[in-house]
Amino acid sequence: MTIKRFADDELRAMSDAELKAMGLRDAHLDEHGYVYATIPANTEKQVPVICFCSHMDTSPDCSGKDVRPQVVRNYRGGDIVLPADPTQVIRAAEQPALADQIGHDIITSDGTTLLGADNKAGVAEIVAAAEFLIAHPEIPHGAIRVGFTPDEEVGGGTTYFDVKRFGAAFAYTMDGAGRGTLETETFSADSMIVTFQGRNTHPGFAKGKMVNAIKVAAEFLRRLPLTSLSPETTELRDGFVHPYALEGAVDRASVKFIIRDFSTPGLEKKEALVEKLVLLGIDLGEAAA
Fold this sequence. Notes:
It is a single chain. The protein is of the alpha+beta class. Helices cover 24% and strands 21% of the residues. It contains six helices and twelve strands. The protein has a five-stranded mixed sheet, covered by helices on one side. A hairpin with a 7-residue loop joins strand 5 and strand 6. 18% of the residues are buried. The N terminus and C terminus are likely disordered.
């Protein structure tokens, strides 16, 4: 196995080149960063066109630049230490899914960057499937469209996707919890940013003047439900209000939210809750007491 390091732009170009090298003549990278291709049908039977798709971007929460992967060969169980930062350990006791990987090779980052398997793994799966189907024409199939998209992690993956031109009746996204899982429904999501404007003064002369935006943001977050409406307390078709990033200083602080639900009215209700908590106002003197 050859492990390469690449950024999203390089991945797009590489995917396009690999698909063309397999013989997918229509493979192309468009001006919006989408990669399209077709595995031609090898049967005269009329069947619907299907699609295999995946997103190429990785989470913005951690750098994915200059990934230096490690390959754990024939995993025999136990903890996995990330070599460039030994304080980071994938612990078997905390990750039950590791038990299912005994005997397999496992790829991790070195601990300094994100690995980006979400969703470079999906891209690799689709490219490998295309290569296999082309090498085995005895497997009959209709036309299979391939699509690689950018910006899924920030909610814009379908913004410029040309559905009509793509022409598939059904699509299967390779991006999920693991082998054997098929998800037939997904949520809708919005983002919210709540910003608190404070007032900074010299701390030696701050009485009655300073307004600490960090404390205001903390009190606002304290008002969120503790036993509901969060990823750690919900399951199945429950929506949630998820603060995932906090940036702050005395004079200004902001909280970034992901809002998820399975209906537009559900999104609106959760966003209204956040707005209500902001508009209630916060008495820091009362909070401190």
